[in-house]
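Support case: user asked for a sample of complex input and structure output to validate their parser. Sending the pair below.
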Amino acid sequence: MMLIFVACTKDEYEGPSLQNLYGEFSLLSPFSISNLNPDFSNNEMVKFHCEFNKSVDWKITIRGLQTGSVKEITGFSNRIDSGLVSWNGNTSEVPFFSEETCALELSFLTELDTLRDTLTILGKKVYEGIMVADFENGIPPDALVFHQFSMNMTFETASDDPLNGNSYFKMGGRMGWNEWFLGSIDFPLDMSAVNSSADEFYINLGVLSGINGEVASDQFINILISESNHPFNDDLTNNASDVFQDTMEVYKYQIRPVDWIGWNMISVSYDQFEVKSSGGNNIRQPNNITAIKLQCQSCPGVSANCPENMSVDVRTDVDFLIFTEGTGVLNQ
Amino acid sequence: MNNYFLKIFLLNFSIFQLASSSFSQQNEKIWFDGLGRSYFSRDNVLSNKDTISPKSMSSGYNLLDLNVHVNPIPNIEVFGQVRVQNQFGGFFGSGTEIDVRQLTARGTLKNKVRFSVGDIFLKQNKYTLHNYDEDLNFYGSDLYNSYKSIIDYENFYQDNRWRLQGLQVDFSYKFDRFIRTLEVDLFTTRPRGSSQLNSALNTFQSDMLLSGGTIYSQISKSISAELNYTILNELPNSGTQLSSVKNPVYQFGLIHQYSAKKFSINSKIQTGLSEKSWSHKVGYDSISHNRLGMFFEYKSEISKLDSSFNLSMGYRYVDPNFRSSAAQSRRIDMAESNLNSIYTIYSNDAVVRPISIFDIISDQNIFNQNISPTLMNFNPIFSNALPYGDATPNRVGLFLDGFYKHKKKYFNINFNTSFFSEVIGQGTSRKRTFLTFAQLTKVNLNELFNQRKEFNFSLGYRNQITNREGDSIERINLNSTHIDFKIEKELLEKVYFNFSTKRIKGIGNEYLVSRDDFDEILTFQQVNYNRIDYLHALGIKYQFKRDVYIDVQYNLWGSEFNIANFNDFDFQRLLFIFSIKL
């Protein structure tokens, strides 16, 4: 009789493990870090290893003590496998890590235990991509800047709070009349060597916002990309490119609203751009891109559209405009 | 608006039928029957800890179900049931409802093929299509017969059949060689129609169909065979649901019968397969959530030909992946969303009152009339070994049951016992075991003392022990004890006094299973029980005849939770039922 029972039962189970749900948590091996002085500029990696007695939601948090940059790695398992869990120096939140000391923390969603350590970055990560503008040498010579002549206009480079390196481009000010458009910066491009499709081609842009803890209502950035073969600067009198006309092949993406304080990295694949003016085939082709325009816009304070903006300057400063292929810059 | 006109039409139609009945009845082309009922209950809170709920509440109704049977031609019958119901408190007809409860046409084609269209009541094998009794049903005992008859009637429970809407045909052949008979029964039904879920989002629920068939053959005098098949499927194109279920079930059985002078022995061996799969419009591949399962059962029973003794025993294996929606749908879904009618919210914490023994006995509204494509929730105190009947998945074990009736009707005993184990564990490789013992003894004192008027008592007892060995997390030990007692005395001619008491005590720990929309286990909820449910009933019943009676009862009932996060509750009820079967 017992044979019938034993023969018909199996040593497996359905559903999640009770041990995982209700078992008491304990570490089976210490939290080990493979490299405490990584040089990410040489493609070095930091690998992590730890083992627990049950599967848990775990999180490794790496925080730059100088930049405040944060990298988080999460998972659900009973083992942090050094073959799978590693860090290449990238970040989850800008600013980017620099050569600095970082605090490491291994924490668990449902447990009180937290394990801590530190490491020192000897060389920061070099992001791969097509750099359009990092403003380290000022405004690129072939770029065109236009802005309205109103209050506190700041369409120029500055070095007080860069996202990367020592310099960034400020776009802001305050409009004194009923006008949304404050100004823009245009860059000519040659992307003919790019092979990626639109969904694999990413436009990455660092955006800084907030002055004294305040942001202007409904301030935003228009990103226009042109695939027109018209001369970039056909009209030398207007301080703006001439390849974004309504009759040309132009695509648009809005970062709207820009309502955060500090830097934020925006990564958008090209296929998310909408057709602004259908002067071409309406097919987004990265290798046909000839120019990009960043427009600063905001709800005007005059004429009572956004009266609260009468006392706040618009700020949509930008830095580190880079095109990447395959993934956004923060996922590299 | 359409419903309003339909009701007026049906009411006029009924009146017209009544007016013409005398003529029609003479020609035996139209005849009537039905049921009338007056129901009134008054409930009171007894607990002093509840100062928010109303101290007492009452409700009731009068209803008349008029059944119209029309035989337009021989061998064809059209049956319609119209309900007129008036809630107590309705004024000038404002609380009056008129509904068509049932519509069926049935007949025989050329005296060979029988058919039914409309509302049909279907039952097959216990693994393919079966409406299992609700929890706490003690051999269909009549301890709370008035409540039970209302619940069964209102929920269309007839002999473990599901009430469905569709078409059924059956026919049979007799042969003079190879096999003796061949009986075929086929049906197709629509347990659920396509309906709009959200008008703003324009979302629709899909049609659900249940179809199947039975082939039964008497191969020889002692051997017969059966083949059952059902398939439940949702039609993805009739709705906007992202996933649609398909659940075919196959069963094959061989029956051997042996009859001697005073007793007979029947043996049955049966096995079957099931598949449950979901077709997804987005998100999953075609084999996501696909399950294949099987079952096997051997049962042998010995019976005395005078029906005074029966003993059966057997072995059953039901795979963890065996899924048969039409056999595993429960009468009561123990989900929190299934709300009681009486004191739904209770206590000063204003929490939802859990389903108790009283609700299972008396509340017709917590019962389910639909086939559920996923396993429904159950309460391990009330039923842990076989919450989905014989078709409960993940069980292997032995069972024994039987009855004995005294020749002189002094007493009769029903009993059963079983020992089951899980096939695979839940959350651990260790398995639960379930040991159940139940018996009901009825002693007819009037026969014993040779009195004409009824005087009897019944004592029922069931004990179910669930165990799982292991460490402190894996270990389960749940003991559920159920005691029933009833005494009935015919005081005057057809006037019965009765007292009954029912008590369940569940003590121990268990893990409740939480499943997703595809029947996969999501998590386990650790629960500890030290709960006592009780129901005492005192009543007088005047039985004009078998189906015509007045029943007046006083009920005292409640639950003590002790260590759980529920407040105890105690209530009382005064009940009046006047029921007439026309």
